[in-house]
Amino acid sequence: INQSDRLQELLQNFDQVLDSKNRDTTAIPTLGLALTVEASPQKTAPLLLPGTGEEPTSCHLKDILLPLLASAQVLAQEKTIQLLIDIPNHLPPVKANIKALTEVFSNIIDNAIKYTPVGGKISIQSLQKNTDFQGIAISDTGPGIPKEDLDRLGERNYRGVQANTDIPGTGLGMAIAKQLIAQMQGEIEVFSPAVEFDSASSSLPGTSFIVWLPQLPHLLNQHPL
Predict the structure, then answer these.
(1) pLDDT for 181-212, tens place per residue?
(2) Where does the chain cross the membrane (predicted)?
């Protein structure tokens, strides 16, 4: 089962907890960091997320992304979507929870493929914010996100205009992703229209998701040749 499938299973289990009649505080035995969400006016249900119990460690973003991009390439080809990848070798390492970060990237890439129309493009490139943060920008030529939805992105169960489409979703993915990255001392920025991609050839505005993570000093941990 791939990373995206595991996240979807996690979200489905979470919805079942919220819909349960007794609404007791329940721990879902999934992969998980604990996210506490409101299950009733009086009680809460903790959701276990990818990476629970794992300390952030030194890792290289390209090592995490390459296996995901290999799978994404297959799905993209089915929709004649062009994947444009620009991630240099030998970038300094970042500090992250590898299992949780893998789930976050998998969810964002999976959504980019879902919402990008046939013949569109998806760009995945590395960015630098001074010497403290390293980023990965995932941009697409999809329908974009209205401003009123951008302001509420990350709210549990809120899907905005996407709720009117036939693309499945729970509205939980970005809420979970933002909390996971925040626990790594990073952040996720979302822009629509896309800002890190030349979408001039597209009639749709597109969206950019930028995942920022704290960068470790380059000389302390060189990437192996």
Answers:
(1) 999 999 999 999 998 655 445 678 899 999 99
(2) none
